[in-house]
Amino acid sequence: MVIAAALAVGAIGGGAWLYANRDAVFKGPEAAAPAKSELARFAQGSLTRLETPAETPLAPDYGFKDRDDRPTSFAAFRGKLVVVNLWAMWCAPCRTEMPTLARLATAYADRPDFVVLPINVDATPDGLADAKSFIDVHEPLPLYSDMTFKLPFLFPGSAGAMPKTVILDKQGRIRASFTGEADWSSPEARALMDALLAEAA
After folding, report:
1. Catalytic position from the list 82, 89, 94, 196
2. Is residue 42 packed enough to be buried (19+ CB in 10 Å), middle (13-18) or exposed (0-12)?
3. Can you tell me the distance from the alpha carbon of 145 to that of 63, in angstroms, rounded to the nearest whole number?
4. What is the C-alpha R_g of the chain?
5. pLDDT tens-digit series, residues 39-66
6. Active site includes 91?
7. Does the annotation count 94 as an active-site position?
8. What is the per-residue pLDDT across 116-165, written as a single tens digit (0 to 9) for each?
């Protein structure tokens, strides 16, 4: 009887400990956070959610069109720091942040090695026509388009989420990305651009 009682007490005590520590016991090993680059220091203010992976793959080898419907690709912009912005007219945050991209482009207008590259992903001719009218009031931004809506799925970040901004360095490598609306004329955005422009080509 004494042994049985002791075993019962032990079982109850063990069960209580197991319940109290269930998270530690049953929780699997946490996935290691992906390594970040030195650019992570710029993830502050409106860029708090900036992704700065340590691995820097080349931009996808995927074609899109310029304003005159001529094909181009990211390789055509090698040698420049490129701020790729994927946007659509149906995306309200895309339209809201566009003036900040225009101010960013204006701030670096004297830098031939810098370009803001808005790529519209509206999938209809009417949507693209509206996009042209919209971008025209946000000088000096150019218009590029991808009517297949594939680019939002080829870059890092939530697949298809909009707006999506990706920073390509002068070698065409993906150095940072941001999903959602941001102030691209903010001090932290300017600091990020300055750091990347200062790198050796």
Report:
1. 94
2. buried
3. 10
4. 24
5. 999 999 999 999 999 999 999 999 999 9
6. yes
7. yes
8. 999 999 999 999 999 999 999 999 999 999 999 999 898 877 677 889 99
